[in-house]
Structures are given as C-alpha cells and as structure tokens.
Amino acid sequence: MKFFVDTADVADIADLAATGLLDGVTTNPSLIHKAGRNFLEVVKEICGIVEGPVSAEVVAADFEGMLREADVVRRLAPNVCVKLPLTMEGLKACKRLTSEGTMVNVTLCFSANQALLAAKAGATFISPFVGRHDDVGQDGMDLIEDIRLIYDNYDFTTEILVASVRHPIHILQSARIGADVITAPPAVLRALANHPLTEKGLAQFTADWAKTGQTIA
Ligand code: G3P
C-alpha cells in the first residue's frame, strides 16, 4: 500500500520524504489556504521534493474551466496529478485529461456508484472520504470494501486512494481491505510508528546499556 501525505506544508513533506516512506502528496484548496502560500508556487516546490504523484485541485466547476486550470497545473512538473471533483463535468474532464496521459485524482467520492463512474472515466485515482462518512454516522470503511469488490470484479486499474483519514485504525483497515493508497495528515502517518511498549523497551535497553559503561565506536 502506498503512503501519501495530505498537506501543503513543505517542511512536513520534506521531513516525511526523508524517511523514504512517502510515495506521494495530496493537497486541496483548504490545505492550500492553511499553508498560506501561492498555489502554483507551493505545488511546484512539493513536486521537487517527492518523485511520486502530487495532487493539485482545480476549482472551476465547468468542463472548459477545469481543462484550462488543469493545463496550468500540469505544466508545473511531470509528477502533477490533476485533482477533479466527482461531478459529471469533472468526469468529462477526467476522460479527456487521462486520454492525454495526464494523471487524474477524482475527489469528493462518497458512494460506490460514484467510484464506478470514475473508473469508467479512466481516473488514475479515486478518493473516497472515509472520515467525513464517519462524521455523519456511517462507516467509511464499508465504502472502501465495496469499491475494492467492484473494481476487482471488472479489473479496473483505477487506484483506490483512501482520503479523509483521521487515525491509524483507518490505515490498518485500508491495508486489510487491500486499498492501493492512503493519504493521511502528517501527524497520523507519524503516529503509525508509535507504541508504548517500544518506548518502554527502549528506555530499559538504554538504561541497562549505560550500566555496562561501554560505547560503540
Ligand atoms: O484531501 C481530501 C481529504 O483527505 C480531506 O480530509 O479530514 O478534511 O475530511 P478531511
């Protein structure tokens, strides 16, 4: 399973990229606003930090406007992935852009039927939002299971990119189901490495080592 980070904070991206565990980056207009940076500048900078896909979202609602904006962002770097909303206009733009060889991430997916449409439109990635499902009292992971089943039934190559990930359990469940990618905030990715018994064991080893009076050199 690939790990993408869901942020436009370049310091966080560079720090996580240094671990070698980062396969890509996703951004959205809210994350760009949070970063307080120029959209095109920050996307270009991120594309220079990671080799994998960097999702950059268009904001036009109509097909022609989406294509115009997509053309601007895809010129920034070869690893730009144009992010489009799951609307009929977005799907139309998805078909056009992927047929031209541009990566497309179809976002704001909340149903398996929407994911089926995105696959038929040739999407590179489909982004179902699990956390926002949980927020309204529905289990977001049920949606991931349904999409996995449907895509496997028809051998669709669209990758399931689990988005709106809020905690490590979402990532564990995504891996169990066989999702292709998860995108999570930096803190959630870092939390995957934490375990109290690891900390306790390390403290014990460090204390016992000090008692030996030795150094490794
Ligand atoms: O980028 C889309 C998605 O990951 C947003 O997550 O937490 O705002 O629902 P969230």
Topology:
Blueprint: E1 2-6, H1 10-17, E2 24-26, H2 29-35, H3 39-49, E3 54-57, H4 63-74, E4 80-85, H5 88-99, E5 103-109, H6 112-120, E6 125-128, H7 130-135, H8 140-153, E7 159-162, H9 168-177, E8 181-184, H10 186-191, H11 196-212
Parallel strand pairs: 1-2, 1-8, 2-3, 3-4, 4-5, 5-6, 6-7, 7-8
Helix pairs in contact: 1-3, 4-5, 6-8, 8-9
The structure holds SN-glycerol-3-phosphate (G3P).
Structure, described:
- The chain has 11 helices and 8 strands.
- With 217 residues, the protein is an alpha/beta fold.
- The chain has a single domain, classed as Aldolase class I (TIM Barrel, Alpha-Beta Barrel).
- The chain is globular, with a radius of gyration of 20 Å.
- It starts with a strand and ends in a 5-residue tail after the last helix.
- The model has no long low-confidence stretch (mean pLDDT 98).
- Bound molecules: SN-glycerol-3-phosphate (G3P).
Summary of the model, kept short:
With 217 residues, the protein is of the alpha/beta class.
Q: What is the CATH class designation?
A: Alpha Beta
Structural domain tally: 1
Query: How large a portion of the residues is in β-strands, by DSSP E?
Result: 15-25%
Total beta strand runs: 8
Q: Count the helices. How many?
A: 11
Distance between the termini: 38 Å
Shape assignment: globular
Summary keywords:
alpha/beta, TIM Barrel, eight-stranded parallel barrel, 11 helices, binds SN-glycerol-3-phosphate
